Amino acid sequence: MTLRPALSLALLAAVLATVFVAPALARTNDRNQPMNIASDQQSGTFADNSVNVISGNVHIQQGSLDIRAQRAEVTLKNGEPSRVVFTGAPVVMKQQMDDGSPMTARADKIDYDLNTETILLIGNALVEQARGSTSGPKISYNMTTGRIDSGGGSGGRVKTTILPRSAAQPAQGKK
Q1: What DSSP state is assigned to residue 97?
Q2: What are the Organic solvent tolerance-like N-terminal domain coordinates in residue numbering (predicted)?
Q3: Distance CA 68, CA 48 (A)
Q4: Structure pTM?
């Protein structure tokens, strides 16, 4: 596997970590760490125009980034990643922020379109950070505009919890 598709996966986690609830940034040095991918099966060429499938107990680690899914599908156009789709029940992504706080994202499907710079968390979507959480049937984030859209049909409700700073961080000087 070449490094470019692997870095796209790390970029996806970093972007998720920067857009929801708290302004903490994903651990910036994670992108410079080796990426380890374990799965039951890998299929594809990771060259030119191809679709590459990583399936069965997919576990990706890069620095503090940890992604677990049943399947990851990486699409390349002209040798560059154009889309990464994770599926599972659920896909779980965890990463530590630069400030040391944890971020966890869960969804039945996570779809990252690199061409439109849009990330979709689909089905039972949940993002948790130290300052709170957002959940709903679908969460969309446009990396270019910063726009977040949450919701979904069939009576799905979006729920957001924002904790006060004092509740999200341990009080200094107290035991």
Answers
A1: B
A2: 37-146
A3: 26
A4: 0.73
